[in-house]
Amino acid sequence: MFSKILIANRGEIALRVLRACRTLGIGAVVAYSEADRDSLAAQLADEAICIGPADARRSYLSAPAVISAAVVTGCDAIHPGYGFLSEDAGFADVVRAHGLTFIGPPAEVLERFASKEATRRLLEAHGLRTIPGSGMLRDEEHALEEAARIGYPVLIKPSAGGGGKGMRLIRTPHELETSFKVSRSEAKAGFGDDSLYLEKYLEDNRHLEVQVAVDRFGQAIHMGERDCSVQRRHQKIIEETPSPALSDAARQELCARAVRAVVEAGYENLGTLEFLVDAKGDAYFIEINCRIQVEHPITEMCTGIDMVAMQIAIAAGEPLGITQADVVSEGHAIEFRILAEDPGKDFRPQSGQILGYLAPGGPGVRMDTHIYAGYEVPPYYDSLLGKLSVWAPDRSQAIARGDAALRELLVDGITTNIDLHRAILANEVFIDGKVTTNLLDRVGSAPFVAAGNR
Amino acid sequence: MPQDRQGGTAAAGRDAGAAAEPSVAGLDARTERDHKAISRLADDLLPALIAKLAASGLGEIEVRDGDWKARLRKPIGTGDRKPGGRSSVEGLPGHGITAGRSPSAALAHSAGEERDRLAREKAQADETASVPIVATSPAVGVFQPRKDTAVGMHVRAGDRLGTVDVLGVREDVVAPVDGVIGLSLAEAGEAVEYGQELVRIELPENSRGLAANSADREAAAVLGEA
Q1: What is the pLDDT of residues B2-33, one digit of tens each?
Q2: Of A79, A318, A390, B73, which has the fewest beta carbons less than 10 angstroms from its beta carbon?
Q3: For B124-167, what is each residue's pLDDT tens digit?
Q4: pLDDT tens digits, A107-138
Q5: Is the distance from CB of A259 to CB of A272 less than 8 angstroms?
Q6: E strands, chain B, in order
Q7: Do A69 and B196 touch (CB under 8 A)?
Q8: Three-class SS state of B191
Q9: DSSP per residue over A222-260, as a string?
Q10: What DSSP letter does each residue of A66-92 carry, written as one string?
Q11: What angle do CA A416, A418, A420 make, to 5 degrees?
């Protein structure tokens, strides 16, 4: 096991990793940018080190800054959190070259799963159904040909992207012509790689994902699925587990198939396989996330597994120590992403000082956040203020607990989406478990916001 | 000389410590009268200035009131800024570096604690006769002062004072202003973090007016980059 871990991330996930280190008895150093000096993780850490200015390219995204910080503080491993350098094979390789361990899949595994397009082909060969799509697009003409073959509507996606970023829905050849160049330059600017591909767009689909863990010895488990269908512009807002859309048999089948495919494909460490499920219930594999995910707490609440601790242990070369039979998922959990966004103003990100903050409590309530009263939300990073997760023996009780907790949660001084969450919980489509990924975008958020104000 | 920490800094006085807004710190404030001046600045002047600055499109605002001046600069969101001086960190070479501020200090917001902090910062400031400006670390790594430099040597703005070794790549530590090399705040071979104060540059007593001007020029130059 490691003696000391550098936490190369910010916000709530830096705090989450710090907590895992403490429960494992491992030292931790929080690496922060100048803008995050007052963040809770930096304050609660036994050690914290400033690695650069607010600009993430010179701090959280700078491999030399992160690795140098680990070296000078005597760390033997680096936890990258999510986003930033968490799935960067080059970074993982350099970390290893400096005699440190990257907490995540080994560099060659990240490399193998780096391209979404290649990953889909790889896992298709190992038994996962994939959405009809194109190869890498050479040019606009090639894109038009491929789109005609697949059939509109299609999504144009950057190969190096993630989290729905840089994706565009295209309904006509004309839209494709106007969007192609923009998408290409956005991909270049956003991910440093302008490779694009097309994918058939499934209307009225659900977004499901299967959580897996594979150790160095090829032992693997899945920890069930999460339903992330409540989205706005491809960004997840609410996640729940288990999915109300799957029967137990379908769940078992999907999860078993997913874990078998990644083991055969040589995956290692924590991973999440994302699927789109169409109206008929067919699941299409879309991508794998080679890191801890934002929404991991709901899986932890149902399985009782500390997934970050598990991730660290696997990276340290330890065996999983449990088999599939040991993984028992109980009850129902829902996570609400509390965002510093103003739903009344087109979800514009908000920054400024948190004047007051009160966390909700009660049975089955968990709050993962880095904010506190007096904290200044910096304008440089994403708008995630925290995650409120609730657990209950069944879905209807989880919804009730979620609503009670959202009523209790107080974030004063900055506009958030708390009321939008309450409105979604009260919506019949959600209560019936029939949300599809396009719901919020199709009906717009205004009816939800308005309903929430009643 | 403004020595800001992060954004939203308010600095006041002929020299300035820095503090989270709305607060001030002063140098050469040796009398009761100065304490009152500080209170007046903190309670009356600064809130009004902050409102003015927020309402304007300006990046920086400065006013003079008798012997005192207060300068406000907008947070770094308005433009990338050079790493400013900040509270130094404690740490042993090769070991971790602890954040300079304790949670209680950062979370503190009551006026009483604010006053206590002002008093402490004033006491620290009083120890320094001339106006200190500090060369800070450009990166996280291992500090090596330049061998052919010594305390008392004259340097020009931009002169190299040493390096910070980042995984074998050396980044220069440079003098932010013209002056005389003063106290070294980090040992050779010490692990330093980004923005850490490394070498003081003293501005001789008789050139204080000049120093203030030079600092103004520097501030203007920084703003010009934004």
Answers
A1: 333 333 333 333 333 333 333 333 344 455 66
A2: A318
A3: 544 444 567 999 999 999 999 999 989 999 999 999 999 999 99
A4: 999 999 999 889 999 999 999 999 888 889 99
A5: no
A6: 9-12, 19-20, 60-65, 68-73, 90-91, 97-98, 131-136, 141-145, 154-155, 160-166, 169-174, 179-184, 191-192, 197-203
A7: no
A8: strand
A9: EEEEEEEEEEETTEEEEEEES-TT--HHHHHHHHHHHHH
A10: HHHHHHHTT-SEEE--SSTTTT-HHHH
A11: 105
Task: Enumerate the residues of chain A whose CB falls inside 8 A of the CB of residue B142.
Answer: 72
Cα–Cα dist B212/A363, whole Å: 60
Residue B119 contacts A, CB cutoff 8 Å: no
Band of pLDDT at residue B215, cut at 50, 70 and 90: very low
Contact: A49, B166; criterion CB under 8 Å: no
Q: How many other CB atoms sit within 10 Å of the CB of residue A22?
A: 14
Phi, psi angle pair for A411, to nearest 5°: -125, 105
Q: Which residues contact A154 (CB under 8 A, 6 or more apart)?
A: A147, A170, A176, A198, A199, A200, A201
DSSP B41: I
Interface size, chain A vs chain B, as Cβ–Cβ contacts under 8 Å: 98
Return the closest-CA partner of residue A271 out of A256, A283, A288: A288
- Among B7, B8, B98, whose Cβ lies nearest the Cβ of A48? B98
Phi and psi, residue A46, nearest 5°: -65, -35
Q: Is A216 a catalytic residue?
A: no
Peptide bond preceding B22: is omega within 30 degrees of 0, i.e. cis? yes
**B94 token code pair:** 């090769």
CA distance A316 to chain B (A): 22
Using the beta-carbon criterion (under 8 Å), do A69 and B140 form an inter-chain contact? yes
Phi, psi (degrees; rounded to nearest 5) at A62? -95, 105
* Chain position carrying tokens 């008093």: B119
Residues with Cβ within 8 Å of B203's Cβ and at least 6 positions away in sequence, in order, are B130, B131, B132, B133, B177, B179, B180, B210, B211, B214
Extract the tokens encoding A279: 């109206």
Are B141 and A379 inside 8 Å of each other by CB? no
Identified catalytic residue from A291, A337, A401, A422:
A291
Angle at A192 between CA A188 and CA A197, to 5 degrees: 60
| Interface touch A52/B109, C-beta < 8 Å | no
Alpha-carbon distance of A18 to A81, in angstroms, equals: 11
- Put simply, the answer to whether B109 touches A44 (Cβ < 8 Å) is no
**B7, B169, B194 ranked by CB distance to A50: nearest:** B194
Distance CA A387, CA A389 (A): 6
CB A204 within 8 A of CB A409: no
**What was the ipTM of the complex prediction?**
0.84
- As a whole number of angstroms, the distance between CA A391 and CA B19 comes to 43
Residues of A in contact with B196 (CB under 8 A): 50
Q: Is pLDDT of A152 > 90?
A: yes
Q: Which residues of A touch B (CB under 8 A)?
A: 29, 34-35, 37-38, 42-55, 59, 64-65, 67-69, 71-74, 98, 351, 372, 374, 376, 379-380
CB A247 within 8 A of CB A344: no
Can you say whether the dihedral through the CA atoms of B187, B188, B191, B196 is positive or negative?
positive
Q: What is the pLDDT of residues A409-432, one digit of tens each?
A: 999 999 999 999 999 999 999 999
How far is C-alpha B144 from the geometric centre of its chain's CA atoms? 22
